[in-house]
Amino acid sequence: MNKIDRIRPSRRSLLKGAGALVVGFHLAPKGALAQAAATPAQTPEINAWVVVHPDDRIVLRMARSEMGQGTRTGLCQMIAEELHCDWSRIETEYVTPGQSLARNRAWGNFLTAGSQGIRQSQDYVRRGGAAARIMLIEAAASQWGVPAAECSARDSVVTHAPTGRTLRYGQLAAAAARLTPPNPVPLKDPREWTVIGQSKPRLDTAAKTTGALVYGADLKMPGMLVAVPRRCPVFGGRVKSFDAAAVRNRPGVRHVLAVGENAVAVVADTFWQAKTALDALPVEWDGGENARVSSATIDARLTEGLDAAEAFVGNSQGDARAAIAGAARKVEAVYSYPFQNHAPMEPMNATVVWTPQRCDVWCPTQNGEAALVAASQAAGLPQQQCDIHRMDLGGGFGRRTTHDWLADAVLIARQVPGVPIKTMWTREEDMVQGRYHPVTKCKLTAGLDANGEVTGLHMRISGQSILSFVFPNALQNGRDPVQFQGLNASGAESAIGYTFPNLLIDHAMRNTHVPPHFWRGVNHNQNAIYLECFLDEVAHATNQDPLALRRKLMANHPKHRAVLDAVAERIGWGGPLPAGVQGRGIAQQMGFGSYVAAAAEVSVSPRGELTIHRIVAATDCGVAVNPKQIEMQVEGSFVYGLSALLYGECTVKDGAIEQTNFDTYNVLRLAEMPKVETIVMPSGGFWGGVGEPTIMVAAPAVLNAIFAATGKRIRSVPLKDQDLRRA
């Protein structure tokens, strides 16, 4: 199925009258599953999850986005598990948020972030497959004049057990579409699963291998022009003036435009013509007061917050301040974590056709519904007159959950009505106009008794709040609950995993003009470093084994302890080091519904050159939909997490981000990648995420291993700025 055909609205007309079965339902306002009437074959576009064509092709419709994490394949496995269809005949297509809006959000949540693409969809997509299977069986039973209980389905074929008669799904589609969907829809017992839990190959591998897969940056349309924008390099700044006449007559240039108050753009026949003209365009920027901000001024503000009198409390048990004040001994350390860029390989882009009556957008987005809202607002049109046609993403990592880039693309297209305008950011624009991992610092203080046991722990975090920028209405009396990821007392999404007799974790909110956003792993990344590395400090200060200390504090947290024990056993904790290895480190964390741990082996040369030899990672995500895909996600998350540890840092000068490309914002190279061993250990009974959790334990495991190897404690990243030579 051609990608472009799938995303164009005219796709609907291709299905009309095709005799296809479409099964749909919508999420009721309170989240309960409500069954909608089956759609007649003549109008198959109604509220559909499953489409069965007369030739037995199965089209499964997706609300969540695919960005390399395997969500498409995992969702199909869950639908196919209940549908009992022929896996080899499966195709997929994206539904649009406009279609969903017209049907009372029939497809539910489009957000693909927070490792929730599968775990937040699993119930209703499985019920979609189950409903389709039941209706197909009922259609066959009706045609044969037999009880449905005598029939069963397998591999897209319904069989009547007593007589052996069979009918293919494609033969039953039209009749099944006229039936009323079952209510309620029963689901299979997990013990009966034959598709969920299997390492099915990725459905998009072939298209990626052949180059047939069309990303947003690849999209071409007849008569399309290309726009390249540039914003004020200082966040919050504006365009003071620009001289359009200086470049208007350059080859291929069609338009030189103002984009709101803070950007300009050149529209040309090709990307290169637009970019080179934009490079030559005289622009005067007004950065305002923010132009005075630097990394040094931001750091000073965060440092002040470490000892501020007021802070938002995230987790409290007993009286930590009193316990520390009366302790026989104290251990204290200050850690810091920088701004970091999402830096996806595919820069921000969107293709827009705007007219006074309608606005259509083709783009890679992690949230089609939010993209629709952004497009509608920029287009000056109701959402019902707009739509988002999603493309696969060339990387997202959280950056494409926000749509500042899409809004600019619509504002540009609005000035060139009726013409397809592809707005392409340059790599440099993508780097300096990002939404960044928040900058924070943390002071940790532990009180110890005479036996070296922890009597109290205080973690003071000072730094940015993501919610205050992205969703200020979600703040809880000014407090950002997301700040405390991995540090909460309990909860399905994030629990600390340790029991301290007295504990205080609080946050002095210190926001900057640099916009923060959700970045793969979010606040778990720095919180895991802060806590897991500090626990190592406590262990070494009290002559305890780091694993033994953790296990003692985990007595009431068996799932945390299970993954920690798994990596410790696999890495050979406490045993002799392999040849060339100088130190081991360990870390654990719980987040996005999953329990994860990592153990690393490293060495550091006399010149301070780090080699990460091996990382063992354990994941308990409850249900493992596709174990092989989980392994790939773990490995990929370590590439991302170790890149951040080694190189990821964005600095600020004169109010602007200094790193403008991969020459100044490096990423992990193949030769630097350690051997990764993944332990998938689903304990069942819950649905955890996979794409983000393991990233958060990579850095602290390596940092703890560096200390074991060198005796040097690194409390600030990235490592490119640190001297790793033995202490």
| Low-pLDDT ranges | 1-20, 22-47
Proportion of helical residues: 25-40%
Tell me the major beta sheet. Answer: 7 strands, mixed
Radius of gyration: 27 Å
Head-to-tail CA distance between termini: 60 Å
Strand order of the largest sheet: 12-13-10-20-17-18-19
Number of helices: 19
What CATH architecture label of the largest domain applies?
2-Layer Sandwich
Say what the CATH topology of the largest domain is: Aldehyde Oxidoreductase, domain 4
Mean pLDDT: 92
Number of strands: 29
CATH homologous superfamily annotation of the largest domain = Aldehyde oxidase/xanthine dehydrogenase, molybdopterin binding domain
Structural class: alpha+beta
Top-tier CATH class of the largest domain: Alpha Beta
Please tell me the total number of domains.
3
Work out the strand percent: 15-25%
Gross morphology: globular
